[in-house]
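Record type: monomer structure entry
Structure origin: computed from sequence
Chain ID: A
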Amino acid sequence: MLWFGTLNYRGLFIPDEGRYAEIPREMLSSGDWVTPRLDGLKYFEKPPLQYWATAASFAAFGEHDWSARLWPALTGFLAALLLVFAGNRLGPPGAGWLAGTMLASSWGYLLSGQFLTLDMGVAAFLTLALCAFLLAQDRPQSEATRRNWMIVAWGAMALAVLSKGLIGIVLPGLVLALYVLVQRDWRLLGRMHWAPGLAVFGTIAVPWFVLVQLRNPEFFRFFFIHEHFERFATAEAHRAGPWWYFVPILLLGMMPWTAALPGALRRAWDGGRGKGEFDADRFVLIWAAAIFVFFSASHSKLPGYVIPVMPALALLLARDAARRARLPLAALSATALVLGVALALVSARLPSLAHAPELAALLGAYWHWPLAAGALLAAGAALAWGTRAARVPALAVLALAFAGLGSALTALDGLHRIEDNYSAQSFAERLVGKDRRLAPQERVYSLRQFDSSLSFYLGSQMTLVGYRGELGPGIAADPRRFIASLPEFSQRWSAEKEAYAVMSPELYRALTEQGLPMHLVLAEGRRVLVSRSGAPPGNLPKAGSLLLALARHVSHRPRD
């Protein structure tokens, strides 16, 4: 209930959530399930598995915030259950339940499951590959069972490739190579079941790449060279960060279990079996370390890249705790208590710390939520502290788990109070009404900006004016859908009988001063929408007349 219950509670974030909702919406609308498109333009940055899943969700449940976020939420939750299953099968007894509880309540993992990005999907399939591989090496099982689990691992890697690209096979391959070198377990390579595994991998992963290349000759160069090698090796994506970029992200992301990591990681390395014998703990440790170092070395870094590390760490923590029949509950409770109190105290002072009036208003509307999150975390930590020595220490574990879940969701869901600053949901609803769309014939221009969440909420593609951004390759393939300059737009706009344009307030004032015929329909914060003829969109509800009058009045008031 906590994991899925608030998926519809806030608007889609800009740019990632809007993008990964709009591409499936256009895929479902066009019926083209091979070539992904964003705003009608070819978009080859990522493979299509999540687009397919989200489009299917839209077809089944309608186009909503929660149905857009269903795939990352579902895959993240199933991966936690998978950790329960695999941990219990691998042992020690109880390790699986503890691993799943830790993973599902870790801040970073939980938040990734609440956001519409590709990170959770690929992390879930990499977790499936890891767990299936570990079960395939589990000696008590029959040879046929081990072979089947190994084939499942190959299939999971193929699905990871279809989720986010070559890392789905590169990362497991890197881990395998490092483990074999460290353990000198060369016999492991003979247990990979290469022939059936590669056949399954190719059957799942290859067909889409062949089809999309046949239809789009430019795909190979952009997807494999630009999106993988150039993005990893250069700062072309403008996402560079220091070598320690992921250290604080991982430490906070594993809360409230972070304090248990040092001892568990040390024991996982020191307690290894002899050379040539498979060691599950050491393999999982190398898995986590290799993925962490790989992305730390990249010149393109985003917080979500480290998510695949977290299931491995949760499994290590749980196996260590189950083997020793103890967790450092005092350290875990104290850390969570200090952090909760600090979060509450800082949140209470947030509005007074802002110097700009806009930021003060923003923090004034939001600060109650992180304050409540800090109080909730502190209360759960205090309960865990009080029950840490009880005969049933599971009470302390559950107290920390629910404190982690509740505090993260509380801080996240409070963002609905300030969603005008990161989402076009309220703007679109004030324009056309809730769960309604523009009519198909109503053309919309987007001047010097592109908000994919606005396209999603309006249910309409927009004609870009003077903005390329990430859509540059798609514009190069189809320049007819792009207007390069404002003078060209002015000519096109003057010839229109009815059309709409969205832009910044500053650009609106500049164009009206030039005498371009524009009638204000709606103004909100950093964007305004204007009409060519003065008529509001056909779906504007009756209450929109009041909003329209108010917007016109406010927008024409002199600045204070």
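Annotation 1: Confidence is low (pLDDT under 50) at residues 539-560.
Annotation 2: Residues 321 and 334 are 18 Å apart (CA to CA).
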